[in-house]
Amino acid sequence: MVQQHNFTLIGxxxxxxxxxxxxxxxxxxxxxxxxISIKDPQLECNRFEKARLHAxxxxxxxxxxxxxxxxxxxxxxxQIHQMxxxxxxxxxxxxxxxxxxxxxxxxxxxxxxxxxxxxxxxMGNDYMRARASDVVDISRRINExxxxxxxxxxxxxxxxxxxxAIILATDDxxxxxxxxxxxxxxxxxxxxxxxTRSHTAIFARTMGLPTIVNIGDKLKKKYEGKFAIIxxxxxxxYIDPDEKTILRxxxxxxxxxxxxxxxxxxxxxxxxxxxxxKINLYVNADSLADIDLxxxxxxxxxxxxxxxxLYLEHCELPTEEEQFEIYKNLLxxxxxxxxxxxxxxxxxxxxxEYFMLKPEANPAMGIRGIRLCLNxxxxxxxxxRALYRASVYxxxxxxxxxxxxxxxxxxxxxxxxxxxAELQSQSLPFDxxxxxxxxxxxxxxxxxxxxxxxxxxxxxxxxxxLTQFTLAADRQNMDVERYLxxxxxxxxxxxEMTIRNGHAKGIWVGICGELASDEKFMxxxxxxxxDELSVVPSSVLTLRAKIATLG
Length: 551
Ligand code: PEP
Ligand code: MG
Prior knowledge:
Layout: E1 7-10, E2 12-15, E3 18-25, H1 41-70, H2 72-75, H3 77-84, H4 88-101, H5 105-121, H6 126-130, H7 132-149, E4 166-170, H8 175-178, E5 186-191, H9 199-206, E6 211-213, E7 227-231, E8 236-239, H10 243-264, E9 280-285, H11 291-297, E10 301-306, H12 308-312, H13 320-333, E11 338-342, H14 370-375, H15 377-390, E12 395-400, H16 406-425, E13 435-440, H17 443-447, H18 449-452, E14 458-461, H19 463-470, H20 489-504, E15 508-511, H21 522-527, E16 532-535, H22 540-547
Parallel strand pairs: 3-4, 4-5, 5-6, 9-10, 9-16, 10-11, 11-12, 12-13, 13-14, 14-15, 15-16
Antiparallel strand pairs: 1-8, 2-6, 3-7, 7-8
Bound molecules: phosphoenolpyruvate (PEP) and magnesium ion.
The site of phosphoenolpyruvate (PEP) has 10 residues, from strand 10 and helix 19.
């Protein structure tokens, strides 16, 4: 009998869909490790080393076992975990604590895990913050093995109360725990911490489990065993829902499932308007880790790869060789689908210490994007060389951000010509047909788009920045959020002008800002004859279905 209470927990949706089930909190074999003084640090170091090697071999088996469930790309995370366990910084920090403080290995692992987790969480981008759970995952694995070796636990695995349908609740699930879940038993996941970009979230999406993360301390142990509904479409969890809510959600689930299968009919087909005009429907991406999500989304390519994240992930400037490997990997994995890589857009909200940027009172309008690249040509050239060298491995286009003048574009074209000549003289192969485009994300660029169009192969309209600059409303400042209206006539006129000017000069025009994913604005964009949209992966099928009814 369902009680007549209706508690709602709000979090962030990491995967869509509706799920019903009984809340079951995850139990871990061990979580707190006391500090114990030991006499022989060398013996303790040996214990750690034995556990570390055991963990590496466990991860090898986990990688093999996960390929079918998660796909090769996702399962590769467990190979990365193996590499992390070989990382000298991680390993030596643990050994140092054991030796210097004469303490047990479990405690040293926990301390270093906390330290690394904190460092990752403080990093300036979501992708690196999401890596925190990988450190926790490998450290937890070592500690469980240490406890197994000392006979304190029998096997290292997670457990939870069994019900017919389980909504798994926990603080934060790590990837190797997620992959252990039985999809026939677990209907959804709710976590108090976590991020939508974590591997856990990616795995949950691959496994089709509605998931809400970031619920905070409202997710309480007292909910153990309670019936609940997850609404992954809005990021809510209803605990002990009343009959009315249950009936309503049974209906919503029916419609949601039906809509989901309706959308599935649009998988694998080209995006076309009612009058059969082809639209290139691409997605935005930040990292190689997004590839699986992109493939699952059925996007026709990547319309904006924010390359700055490669720089933010590094503690020092990535070398040309390092970048080349990443771009080569990205292009090969995309198997000849279009990949538009945006050159470094550092500055404003995105920065790394090693750039040693001068503090600016108004960084959004400071030395960022193409300005920074043209001021630091060595950085720009190394990225362009890496991109051109990688171009033979797929279908690459390059675009530059934050353009405000024709001179900047001419300078870029000159640098590119010099790089091509240089590569040729070094007998390094590259694709001569790589398209070169610019982002139209300043009012200046939109207003002179007729002039700019003569120097590039395409325009990609960045409506996020275009809106903030046109309406003088800082996109980082919540207080001016209501002024940040992308439907404002001033913004729409600039979009219209850009498309018209681009087409008049025979180049294609796309949109890669948030507005491209906006179903409500689709009719207008199709009417304006937009050629390409770069959207969030979850919108691909919805937009393809919508576009088929327009134009
Ligand atoms: C934009 O400004 O619209 C854009 C896509 O770039 P970013 O959001 O990375 O600034
Ligand atoms: Mg921008």
